[in-house]
Every structure is written in C-alpha cells, then in structure tokens.
From TrEMBL:
It comes from Rhodocollybia butyracea. Belongs to the asaB hydroxylase/desaturase family. GO terms for molecular function: oxidoreductase activity. Signal peptide: none annotated. This is 7alpha-cephem-methoxylase P8 chain.
Amino acid sequence: MPATTVQPSTVPGKLVYFSSPKDGSRPFVRVNLDPSSTESRFNYIAVEHTLPIEDVRGKEHLYTLDTAGFQYFQHKAKHTSFSNDEEIEREYYPESTELLKKLTGASKVVLFDHTIRRRRPGEVDTDVTKRQPVTQVHVDQTTQSAINRVHRHLPESEAPELILNLWRPISKPADDWPLTLCDFRSINRAEDLVPIALIYPDREGETYGVKHNPGHKWKYLRGMTPEEIVLIKCFDSIQDGSVSVLTPHTAFEDPSTPEGSPLRESIELRALVFYD
C-alpha cells in the first residue's frame, strides 16, 4: 500500500510584523502609488518573526466571532466565476447578504466593497486589478476609520454593530500562501496595535499595524476550498471586554504546501452588519 502523508497539526510561519518608524513620525503607507514615483511607499519597519500556526481543521467549532474574532463555515456559492466586478455585485452580493444574515442573525447587511486577490510573483501591486495576498500582519480598520467608513456609505444616524469580512478561495483550494488569523484572546489591544495612515491619491484611511507579541495564537484552515468561508471581524461596537473586537490576520507561506500547488486566488467582501 502507498504511504499515507500525515500533515502536521502546526507549522512554523514567518510572519511580518510592524515596528514603529525610527524617527518617531506617524506611520503611513501610500496606496496605489505610481510605480514611477520617487516617494516612499511606507515609513515603518517590517520585522519578521517565526511563530507556530495551528491547523484547526476538525475543531473549527472552537473559534467563533464572539470569542476568537473569526469563524469558519461551509457554503457553496452560486456565483463562481469572480471575473467581472459588475457580475460580482449583481450576483454574489445578494447571495452573500442573505448568507451573512443567516449566519449572524442580522436584520440588515450592507456590502460596501470587495477585493479579489491573485498571487502573481514579481508583479507590483499598484491598483485594484493587481491586488495580491497581504503579507504583513494587520487589522483592516481602526475604530475611527470604521466610523468614517460607515459615514461614507450611510447617514450618521445609522450605526452598525459589526464590520465583517467574508473571505473565500476562488476556483481551487488555497494551499498556496493561505490566510492565518490571530485569536483575539491572545492579543493585547493597548500594546500590540498601532494606527497606520493609508494615504490614497484622493483620500486617507487608517488601519492597524500589529507589533510582535510571542503570546499571539495563530490559526488557519489548511487547504480551504471555494466551498468554505471564514468571517473575519474588523470592528465591533461592543468594546466592554465581553466579546472579541477585531482580528489580526495575514497571508503566510505554509511550508507544508504541496509542491506545484496553484497560486492562491481569493475574494473578500466587506460588510456593515445591523441588528434590530
């Protein structure tokens, strides 16, 4: 009989963390920067640390939005091509809205954008058509940028309880550079998170850079398929310590990835979630 390959339950992952600029200036990153520009794309220091990353397949139930800040589900999408933004908005948005309502019990869900990521080694990530997996530990929104984001899409009188990402692989399993998430219960929000200005050509946003903490507990679902999704909490209006508030995450090079695996492709939707 052929030998059976036993996958390790934990792999070493080289994760890129944030370190503050040496001159004490406000950290920034310029988004969609013209490749011919002589301006610096960012001014902070990226520091690599190797940490254990646990495969949670078979025990996904231990990680929920309220506890860990992320949660895995099985769901086969009706829309599967993900090749045209208009089709995605017309076909994938409605089914995802209903899915989010079902999974979270929300009374209202507003999807405000999406990003398709396709890993292309050597290609520069210069605009929305060339987005690659993010290879630095980050949180998508700070509290202030979450509030600003809401006001860009809705009247100030409307306040969502949650901002979530719905993430899934496209067309094939995400063995190559998979997504890993940090259990909220293992982070120190006061010490680990640093706001970074996102400078676009026409506006400014803000995200959290994440400082290294040896206590961080990193998880992933090895070989996630297009029929599997993960909900990622970016913001929670409840910040009294009773539930998770956000989720640091990053792509990483999994040393157990089979040789010749297809390059990773994925889509993430961003949603404002309301409850009556």
